[in-house]
Amino acid sequence: MLLHLAAANPLLAAVRADPRVTLAVTDDYAFAPGRWRGAPYTPTSYYASVQFSCTAELVEDAAGKAAILNRQLAHFQPERPGDRVGPGGAQWALLTGVRGLRLTVRRVRAKFKYDDKKPVELQAEVAERLAERHAATGNPQDAGARAQLLRRMAVRTAGPDRSSD
User: Is 0.85 surpassed by the pTM of this model?
Assistant: First the structure.
């Protein structure tokens, strides 16, 4: 994994002292009130969370930092190749203010919490309420959690794979 940080970020001192780092990513987080879930009406949260145990390599040379930034720009702005960082370009001088990190993943731990042990009917009701709340608020996390919930329900209700019959 590649990322960049401001040169003044205190995290960099910690990486220099010990390159073993953990990167945690959580997405599609949505709160489900107890009234959505039936008795005993216990509220919960739905989410997907992944922890990456990594070894970090600090990238401080201009060419290495530019390579990281250009890879990120190619992903997020593929339609703008002219915005890439290169020697002599306007952004090149700004590279003194950033540091790159190259993370080599050593271990991955993940948790997906979507009421998989609850009846599918309850999951369907919660999915409908997430859709209603998303329509009312526009919160993308509700839509993401609903999509995950529906995907997981489909797998649960599909039954055994009979494609080889």
Answer: no
